[in-house]
Specification:
single chain, alpha/beta, 25% helix
């Protein structure tokens, strides 16, 4: 059996959380190995790089990472400025990943597809904690098995979006018309502009939806024939509208106020209480069918659909580990009640550490 001696702590994901964890571990003299599935650090952020976040720089930069960067001459951006996701990567994550303390430990184009223990499946209990973790890693050169003393999963959920179907399963026709459906926050005013100069249905009621709606409205100012139809399952949009000026994060409050004004102005059409069931094609365009309190209803036709319906974790990777997850959010159980969208708009999560992030599987976080 492989020994735990001198093995690294494996960190899955080279985004803000993963690189911050790596900096923290390196500062304590512990060996680390960062696996990033994308071609560069912060790959998921680059998918929505055009979006300006509602947290200022002072919340985006880890204190230990900052100290490490500053020891090499890096300068912190204006702490109260609000960066785009692209700027977070370019001005923070990329420089951090290039530091000699971290660069040798970071591997890109390396996707961890499964995690287990050497010589032990999920069922075996005896001396489980003494067995190193085994990571199945897919790279451009093939698949290999790596060892680790502990594992931190910072891969996030961006790559596993929720489907359009209101029941959590893909809507009928969703896969068939997938080439005309975008998940997340497409760059409506930039690289994807040519796709959205027409009619678009946006499904969802979170902050991703708010950003995309505001950009569609701006596109309509310069592209004749551009229109947006906003469809939500909920009839109460207070979660996206937020607290306005009273919001603890003013930029988030401004985002909610802006999209509320947009909906009330009539510049976009809003349909609430709509549970998506199917996507159908009519005369070359897409129609969305859903259930409402008054029965079945069709909305459209449109050229494209944006699914801003959130994401959830890929639990297949950790199938052979012993996890204790929130039953519906599928995240860390201790934090689930604090971020439950049934109760909170974004949630208020106090500072927490390894105890809250731990699982019955020893040394997995």
């Amino acid at each position: 059996m492989v020994s735990n001696s001198n093995l690294p702590v494996a960190i899955i994901g080279g985004g803000p959380v993963g690189l911050a964890a790596a900096a923290q571990l390196v500062s304590r003299g512990l060996p680390v190995k960062v696996y990033e599935a994308g071609s560069s650090v912060g790959s998921n952020l680059l998918d929505w790089g055009h979006v300006r976040v509602f947290t200022p720089w002072r919340y985006c930069v880890d204190a230990v990472a900052r100290k490490l960067l500053e020891s090499h001459g890096w300068q912190m951006p204006e702490p109260e400025a609000f960066p785009t996701a692209d700027e977070i990567v370019d001005q923070y994550l990329a420089p951090l990943a290039k530091l000699p303390e971290l660069a040798p430990s970071i591997e890109t184009d390396a996707r961890v597809v499964a995690i287990s223990r050497w010589g032990a499946d999920k069922v075996l209990s005896k001396a489980r904690e003494t067995r190193p973790f085994m990571l199945l890693v897919e790279t451009t050169e093939g698949t290999r098995r790596d060892s680790a003393r502990a594992v931190i999963d910072a891969s996030g959920t961006w790559q596993t979006p929720n489907p359009l179907g209101a029941g959590g399963l893909p809507a009928e026709g969703e896969r068939e018309f997938g080439d005309r459906i975008a998940y997340g926050i497409p760059d409506v005013l930039g690289r994807d502009r040519h796709l959205y100069a027409g009619r678009t249905t946006l499904v969802g009621a979170g902050h991703s939806a708010a950003n995309a709606l505001l950009e569609l409205d701006r596109l309509a100012e310069t592209e004749p024939g551009t229109s947006a139809l906003w469809v939500t399952r909920s009839t109460d949009l207070v979660r996206i509208y937020g607290g306005g000026d009273a919001d603890a994060l003013p930029a988030r409050g401004e985002l909610g106020s802006d999209v509320r004004h947009l909906a009330e102005s009539g510049r976009i059409r809003l349909v609430t209480g709509f549970a998506t069931l199917a996507i159908r094609e009519v005369d070359g365009r897409l129609v969305v069918e859903g259930q409402t309190k008054d029965g079945l209803r069709n909305v459209g036709p449109v050229d494209r659909i944006i699914a801003a319906t959130g994401q959830r974790p890929d639990l297949a990777v950790t199938r052979e580990l012993r996890l204790d997850l929130d039953p519906w959010l599928e995240g860390v159980k201790a934090l689930g009640p604090l971020i439950d969208p049934n109760e909170h708009s974004c949630g208020d999560v106090p500072p927490h550490g390894h105890r809250e992030l731990s699982h019955p599987e020893p040394d997995f976080y």
